[in-house]
Write a structure and sequence with these properties.
single chain, binds glycylglycylglycine, two-stranded antiparallel sheet, 11 helices, Isopropylmalate Dehydrogenase, disordered C terminus
């Protein structure tokens, strides 16, 4: 039997609430499959550790992660610690330190979930956003001086490298080619940003020549927000810089019903290091402890993780269970349901266990 070593980093806020449920469904799907097992090691890294020990993760944390096959991450961010400290101290440290340069964010409207866009239902919105995950606006170059003085200066330098842009373009074109519509939109802002973004566009042109069977176009990031709202059916695969894709994928999650169902994979496509799977949502301290955090994004991440590990059958079974439960109207309040985190998880576990007859939730679709 194959054994996959998984590092679990629940992090802050609702992270632990959804990751624990994610691990339960992963174990259930592995048991049902019978061909593999997961060996999970938990790490208590995050803002509480920062309060106790002065850092979100230990110095040798990256080395420790390298021995795993995959990482399941929850969320990071706490009202007690400045956001730039938590983000750079954990999530970005791992993504950049392990060179997980492709951040893959699928968006679909799941059955039973309603988009805020009128007339847009299941099948009308099926995108994958590829976020450049190693450089750009998140390069970490900049500084601050003359603090508190009238001449105080703060700089934040976006750095685009040929290597970084070429590899993310190649990844995005290849992903677009693997999807039925073979269509890619390259997001840019090269009208206003005339160096890095013009290079970004030029490299897109170059890489496109390697993919003559992919239909592609280029759109300014501001116009892209309008296209996503007005004509969601026309989009398929999308590639954008670190910051642009971060913003666009929040919009995408909202248009698909809720950020609570939006997953992401931080991938090292060359597999030199483990890839990391996490819900897009943050730590959501406003609902911590209420038992209402939506576990669906984490379940979808778990399916992404299984697929990455080569367990496509188990991944498909897990997504079938998640979609069946959503279709039955068993859902948390963020997507208009009345169920708790635990109830959604139990329904998914029942489905994986083979009982596909679920109670019909009030107002739900039933099955
Ligand atoms: N699970 C995702 C998460 O915790 N995100 C925290 C966050 O603030 N992310 C912002 C970013 O990645 O740009």
């Amino acid at each position: 039997m194959k054994v996959y070593k998984v590092a679990s980093i629940p992090g802050d806020g609702i992270g632990p609430e959804v990751v624990s449920e994610g691990l339960r469904v992963l174990e259930a799907v592995a048991r049902r499959d019978g061909g593999f097992r997961l060996e999970v090691t938990g790490f208590d890294w995050g803002s509480d550790r920062y309060g106790r020990e002065g850092s979100l993760m230990p110095e040798d944390g990256l080395d420790r992660l390298k021995s795993f096959d995959a990482i399941l991450f929850g969320s990071v961010g706490s009202p007690a610690v400045p956001d730039h400290v938590t983000l750079w101290g954990l999530r970005l440290k791992i993504c950049q330190g392990l060179d997980q340069y492709a951040n893959v964010r699928p968006t679909r409207i799941l059955p039973g979930i309603k988009s805020p866009l009128e007339g847009v239902g299941q099948g009308d919105l099926d995108w994958v956003i590829v976020r450049e995950n190693s450089e750009g606006e998140y390069s970490g170059h900049g500084g601050r001086s003359h603090r508190g003085m009238p001449g105080e200066v703060g700089t934040e330098v976006s750095i685009f490298t040929r290597m970084g842009v070429e590899r993310i373009m190649r990844f995005a074109f290849a992903l677009a080619r693997s999807r039925p519509r073979r269509r890619l939109t390259v997001v840019t802002k090269s009208n206003a940003q005339r160096f890095g973004m013009v290079m970004w566009d030029g490299i897109a042109d170059e890489v496109a020549r390697e993919f003559p069977d992919v239909e592609w176009d280029r759109t300014l990031v501001d116009a892209m927000t309008v296209r996503m709202v007005r004509d969601p059916r026309a989009l398929d695969t999308i590639v954008a810089t670190n910051l642009h894709a971060d913003i666009l994928s929040d919009l995408a999650g909202a248009l698909a019903g809720s950020l609570g169902v939006a997953p992401t994979a931080n991938v090292d496509p060359e597999r030199r290091n483990p890839s990391m799977f996490e819900p897009i949502h943050g730590s959501a301290f406003d609902i911590v402890g209420t038992g209402t955090a939506n576990p669906v994004a984490t379940f979808w991440c778990a399916a992404q993780m299984l697929e990455h590990l080569g367990e496509a059958g188990a991944a498909a079974r897990l997504m079938e269970a998640v979609e069946g439960v959503c279709a039955a109207g068993i859902a948390t309040p963020d997507v208009g349901g009345g169920s708790s985190t635990r109830e959604v998880t139990e329904a998914v576990l029942d489905w994986i266990g083979g009982s596909n007859i679920l109670p019909t939730a009030v107002g739900g679709v039933g099955r």
